[in-house]
């Protein structure tokens, strides 16, 4: 579902998972984020990040990299930098993927 960007189907299965009493983890939430990121839906990515935190699931590098990537793909470098700041504040280490996402986005914006 996430690879195809079928976010409605993803959310349907997430609901079924919750109904079955299965507890979502960081992989679950990162998959939801990835699906919405593929469709460029920043608002839904932020929504699911909020749901993740509210559920007590700790975001990881992949979480923040996905959030930054959706911002990069939509050209919102200010929001991308905000997510980078949140990542640092959460004590999550940036990787080469994180920095490459930022650099590529800034390059695309400057070429523009």
UniProtKB/TrEMBL annotation:
- Which top-level group of life is the source organism from? Eukaryota
What PANTHER family does this protein map onto?
CHLOROPLAST RNA SPLICING4, OS03G0856100 PROTEIN
Matching entries from InterPro entries are given as:
PPR_rpt, TPR-like_helical_dom_sf
What PROSITE patterns does the entry give? Answer: PPR (PS51375)
User: Keywords, A to Z?
Assistant: Repeat
Where, in residue numbers, are the PPR repeats? 25-59, 60-94
Report the protein name in the record: Pentacotripeptide-repeat region of PRORP domain-containing protein
Q: Which organism is this protein's natural source?
A: Heterosigma akashiwo
